Amino acid sequence: MSYFKNVNDVLGGASMAFYVLGFSAFVTTAVFYWGLHSSYANIIEGGFKDNIFSHLTAAVFWIHIAVGFFVILDAMYYKKLIETKLQVFVQTFFIIGPGSFNTLVVASLLSTSILYSDSYNAIFFGLQTNDIGLNTFETNLAALICACLSNAMMLALIFLPGSGTGVAGAKINGRVDANKLFF
């Protein structure tokens, strides 16, 4: 069973919309992560030693790209990962963990962007808008919204009824088979 066949079986004609939505969410989030990095990369000298925010937001962007790569690998080798009991390991350490880290970092940066964005954006960040034409707060908020929506879609898929891998797919004769739960 491949992941794509599984999604097609469960979602039917809506599976193409799922793929388009997932890819669009990935690209949109990447754009906002890059915009966030471009905002923090221009922090005025002396504001922070060695501009740690620039490095942190660059890491968020590249982690997002790596997570996308692992999502594709996970989907392509879904059956093999299930059979070798590596599905949970890959999901935890290469997809959900890093994605959650990014979401938490972007959420924590929101307070900094609120504090300096409005009247001090040009003074603190060295520019009024970033590469995508938004101020730092707008970019930070949009990145957080995209990350949260992507996480919601991922969680919805984990618990997709009849998927065979989520909680709903683990029920056998009314009981939950722990061996099938997420494996």
* Coarse morphology: elongated
Secondary-structure element pattern, one letter each: HHHHHHHEE
Beta-strand residue fraction: under 5%
Fraction of residues in H or I helices:
55-70%
What is the end-to-end distance? 13 Å
Query: What's the total number of strands?
Result: 2
Sheet with the most strands, sense and barrel status: 2 strands, antiparallel
> How many separate domains?
1
Order the strands across the largest sheet as they lie in space.
1-2
**pLDDT below 50 for ≥5 consecutive residues: which ranges?**
164-173
Average of pLDDT = 79
Radius of gyration: 19 Å
Q: Give me the number of helical elements.
A: 7
Structural class: mainly alpha
